[in-house]
Amino acid sequence: DINEDEFKAILKAAEDWPRADTLADFSYGTAGFRMRADLLDYVVFTVGLVASLRSRKCAGNAIGVMITASHNPAEDNGVKIVDPMGEMLMSDWEPYAKFMANARTPEQLRNCFMHIINTAQVHDHNARKVIFARDTRPSGARLVRALKAALEATNTEYVDYGILTTPQLHYLVKATNTVKMDKPYGEVSEEGYYKKLSKAFSEAINHATRPPSTPVTVDCANGVGAPKMKKLIEHLPEGALDIQIVNDRIESPEDLNNHCGADFVKTSQRVPQSFTGKAFDRWCSLDGDADRIIYYFVEEGKVFRLLDGDRIATLAAAFIGELVRKAGLDEVITIAIVQTAYANGASTKYVEQNLKLKVEFTNTGVKHLHHVAAMKDIGVYFEANGHGTVLFSERAVKAMRKHQPQSTAQMEALETLRALTDLINQTVGDALSDFLLVETILAHKEWTVKEWLATYTDLPNKLAKCLVTDRSAYTSVPGTAEQRLATPARVQPKIDEIVSKYRDGRCFVRASGTEDAVRVYGEAAEVYDTEDLVAKVCDFIGSYGGKSP
Ligand code: G16
């Protein structure tokens, strides 16, 4: 039952963080709650309450709360909950978070609190701990106060890690909860994160003929990735990589993700502000909370070439596959790739036909991909937008540990593989870790961006955004990886009709879970067909004057 003293304290604290007066309900979307920062105070307060209950449910293990709106514009913010092993909040609990954020009166809040305790069978007297961090958005400081108010009212022990990247917080949650285990995930500090990555990186490039000989430039989206990448560089072995940084103006919030960063480069398919690269120079962009990374370059004549999440997935899967084979483990360990509908059709074909690996599709959102990848021996998952990682199962790690190499070549492959399990963030997609992974692979293969691009040719593609009055009217048919709309009923037949007119045409529409818009993705054999196809679908949706057809 509810602890009356605790609940009194909650109500008292809630007075300072009133719910924004919106008619619409808040929802726990692709990456938690995300909206205009001035609407979020109460939402963050209630997330504090849910995180406290979640920790009690998880036997007092630390739960993470990250305050960030990642790729969204600077005036937005968001909040999401991280489970004990560093993974996203268990999906069964998302409705609880939604329910609580939408409680409009003290009675409703009380009912929600009681409901969670009863249905999730939370032992009210259990220990509870929450650790949290935020990105560089100025609104973060106020939202942290709302969070602390909820944690203090619920007598929850907490650690405020200040400003971190999202994946760093995921790392710290797992490190905190494994500290007493046989194999702790890493030291419980930001410093520990850099130490783990740099040690693993040194080991991973140890058997490469030479480190990448050309410099790489990182666009940090004017966000938290900038100071954190600089700290990472301080920890890397001397001379290992020549890294230049651009777009690191975190002191001017309006510059965050503005004409720079992974989302801008991927969606507009052009170079970011401050780009000074010459032909074939290697560049990459992080997003606003440094969980996504994409690479790109320009060819002579300024032709823009993108090496997105699909490219990182195929690069990583091919490399890890080779190592598994060279180490003599290919009979024991299998590799699978997980993608979303946004994956370029050419990448899927390449994985199936050239790499001979199995591809599975899930809905958008790393939480969905992660879940499927975690069931494989080695699961490589990346969204085309550059958000992803590689998961090594306990089974695969054991096989690598036990395997006795039969030759120096086998031993070297095995050592590199083992280093990758530490280099790659096992909790969530992590731009800093993925950056070191890509650099490691390019070093081993002695590849420039040119060879990397040559592996396959992308189908021309376009991603557009349409503003509609009610994006919740757009729902997908379950089991189609969001490639078909169930509602509004008239839209899917029309899309099918339009798509049928283009060679290799593919197009789908889905409601964004992070922005107030629907996304339209299209592919076709020719660039002008792709443009035309997406424009026609957008026109159809827009022809209702922003109203849902
Ligand atoms: C978040 C999610 C990603 C997702 C992206 C766009 O990214 O973590 O998995 O691909 O939003 O989602 P949607 O199309 O539903 O708006 P981030 O980097 O903003 O946290």
UniProtKB/TrEMBL annotation:
<dbReference type="InterPro" id="IPR016657">
    <property type="entry name" value="PAGM"/>
</dbReference>
<dbReference type="GO" id="GO:0000287">
    <property type="term" value="F:magnesium ion binding"/>
</dbReference>
<feature type="domain" description="Phosphoacetylglucosamine mutase AMG1">
    <location>
        <begin position="308"/>
        <end position="447"/>
    </location>
</feature>
<feature type="binding site">
    <location>
        <position position="289"/>
    </location>
    <ligand>
        <name>Mg(2+)</name>
    </ligand>
</feature>
<feature type="domain" description="Alpha-D-phosphohexomutase alpha/beta/alpha">
    <location>
        <begin position="105"/>
        <end position="177"/>
    </location>
</feature>
<keyword id="KW-0413">Isomerase</keyword>
<feature type="binding site">
    <location>
        <begin position="383"/>
        <end position="385"/>
    </location>
    <ligand>
        <name>substrate</name>
    </ligand>
</feature>
<dbReference type="InterPro" id="IPR005844">
    <property type="entry name" value="A-D-PHexomutase_a/b/a-I"/>
</dbReference>
<dbReference type="Pfam" id="PF21404">
    <property type="entry name" value="AMG1_III"/>
</dbReference>
<protein>
    <recommendedName>
        <fullName>Phosphoacetylglucosamine mutase</fullName>
        <ecNumber>5.4.2.3</ecNumber>
    </recommendedName>
</protein>
<feature type="binding site">
    <location>
        <begin position="510"/>
        <end position="514"/>
    </location>
    <ligand>
        <name>substrate</name>
    </ligand>
</feature>
<dbReference type="Pfam" id="PF02878">
    <property type="entry name" value="PGM_PMM_I"/>
</dbReference>
<comment type="pathway">
    <text>Nucleotide-sugar biosynthesis; UDP-N-acetyl-alpha-D-glucosamine biosynthesis; N-acetyl-alpha-D-glucosamine 1-phosphate from alpha-D-glucosamine 6-phosphate (route I): step 2/2.</text>
</comment>
<dbReference type="InterPro" id="IPR005843">
    <property type="entry name" value="A-D-PHexomutase_C"/>
</dbReference>
<feature type="binding site">
    <location>
        <position position="291"/>
    </location>
    <ligand>
        <name>Mg(2+)</name>
    </ligand>
</feature>
<keyword id="KW-0597">Phosphoprotein</keyword>
<dbReference type="InterPro" id="IPR049022">
    <property type="entry name" value="AMG1_III"/>
</dbReference>
<feature type="binding site">
    <location>
        <position position="519"/>
    </location>
    <ligand>
        <name>substrate</name>
    </ligand>
</feature>
<dbReference type="GO" id="GO:0004610">
    <property type="term" value="F:phosphoacetylglucosamine mutase activity"/>
</dbReference>
<dbReference type="GO" id="GO:0006048">
    <property type="term" value="P:UDP-N-acetylglucosamine biosynthetic process"/>
</dbReference>
<feature type="active site" description="Phosphoserine intermediate">
    <location>
        <position position="70"/>
    </location>
</feature>
<comment type="similarity">
    <text>Belongs to the phosphohexose mutase family.</text>
</comment>
<keyword id="KW-0119">Carbohydrate metabolism</keyword>
<dbReference type="InterPro" id="IPR049023">
    <property type="entry name" value="AMG1_II"/>
</dbReference>
<dbReference type="Pfam" id="PF21405">
    <property type="entry name" value="AMG1_II"/>
</dbReference>
<keyword id="KW-0479">Metal-binding</keyword>
<feature type="binding site" description="via phosphate group">
    <location>
        <position position="70"/>
    </location>
    <ligand>
        <name>Mg(2+)</name>
    </ligand>
</feature>
<dbReference type="InterPro" id="IPR016055">
    <property type="entry name" value="A-D-PHexomutase_a/b/a-I/II/III"/>
</dbReference>
<comment type="function">
    <text>Catalyzes the conversion of GlcNAc-6-P into GlcNAc-1-P during the synthesis of uridine diphosphate/UDP-GlcNAc, which is a biosynthetic precursor of chitin and also supplies the amino sugars for N-linked oligosaccharides of glycoproteins.</text>
</comment>
<dbReference type="GO" id="GO:0005975">
    <property type="term" value="P:carbohydrate metabolic process"/>
</dbReference>
<dbReference type="Pfam" id="PF00408">
    <property type="entry name" value="PGM_PMM_IV"/>
</dbReference>
<feature type="domain" description="Alpha-D-phosphohexomutase C-terminal">
    <location>
        <begin position="466"/>
        <end position="539"/>
    </location>
</feature>
<dbReference type="InterPro" id="IPR016066">
    <property type="entry name" value="A-D-PHexomutase_CS"/>
</dbReference>
<dbReference type="InterPro" id="IPR036900">
    <property type="entry name" value="A-D-PHexomutase_C_sf"/>
</dbReference>
<feature type="domain" description="Phosphoacetylglucosamine mutase AMG1">
    <location>
        <begin position="190"/>
        <end position="294"/>
    </location>
</feature>
<feature type="binding site">
    <location>
        <position position="287"/>
    </location>
    <ligand>
        <name>Mg(2+)</name>
    </ligand>
</feature>
<keyword id="KW-0460">Magnesium</keyword>
<feature type="domain" description="Alpha-D-phosphohexomutase alpha/beta/alpha">
    <location>
        <begin position="62"/>
        <end position="90"/>
    </location>
</feature>
